[in-house]
Amino acid sequence: MADLTPTPDRPGLHVSKPSPSATPTASAVCHCGARATATGDSQVKALVDGYTVNHGPAHAEGGK
């Protein structure tokens, strides 16, 4: 399997939860230079929500 971890050359969001009982993890890198990691359900959800609103797709809409 390819390494799906985002990098400055390949920005994006990666969430992993290999089994229902596993602790989820997430990492994000935006082309603007912002980066973050999270562990646990609530932190991963917050990272995904924040990345979606403030980075990644948000930069494509209206030049934010």
How does this model look, in words?
This protein is of the alpha+beta class and 64 residues long. Helix content is 28%, strand content 23%. The protein has helices at 41-54, 57-60, and strands at residues 12-16, 25-29, 35-39. The chain has a three-stranded antiparallel beta sheet with strand order 1-2-3, with helices on one face. Strand 2 and strand 3 (35-39) form a beta hairpin. The radius of gyration is 12 Å and the shape is globular. The termini are far apart. The mean pLDDT is 88.
Summarize the structure in short.
The chain is α+β, with helices and mostly antiparallel strands and 64 residues long.
Question: What features would you highlight for this structure?
Answer:
64 residues; single chain; 3-stranded antiparallel sheet; globular; alpha+beta
The helix-and-strand class reads alpha+beta
| Beta-strand content | 15-25%
Q: How do the SSEs run, as a string of H and E?
A: EEEHH
User: Runs with pLDDT <50, length 5+?
Assistant: none
Q: What Rg is obtained from the alpha carbons, in whole angstroms? A: 12 Å
- Total helical segments: 2
